[in-house]
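Input chain follows. Return structure tokens only.
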Amino acid sequence: MLTLNTVVHTHHTIANTEVTIRPMTKEDAELESNFVHNLSFETKHNRFLEGINDLSPKMLARLCDIDGKNAMAFIATILHDNKEQQIGVSRYACEPDSNESEMAITVADEWQHHGLAQLLMKPLITYAQHNGISALFSIDLSSNTAMHRLAKALGMSCEKMPEDSRLLKYRLSLAHA
């Protein structure tokens, strides 16, 4: 079993910039708030399935309340002007009484199409597997081509949501991941 304290931070070079991927903590609330604030309308719409400008304090607290058991998140950061800046996040939150978990991934607009989403998914998948999660799923807009490409690359199944034809449900069985 992995825990928040046993996860190793990883370092990668993308576009000649060192990127660190590490678990999110409650202390990252300001990073998360700035990250979401700076996303384009389209990226925010794809992530939250609605138009938002900024996270409410309640939503920010919920997104940063990572206990390492029922909720887990990894963030990608860079140093920008000698300050840590978040450029991506992958997360899951367990469904009550289920060993399947809803997941989400978001990459800052200027960092999309550099392979960061796959780098963020690797530790999330590994962490979920080591903590008894049997599958990760994501509900996304059918127009979200970036998620479609990522899901295909990860070997996720895809089905249309019967109650809303604009939504797709991607599912990754962790027994085969």
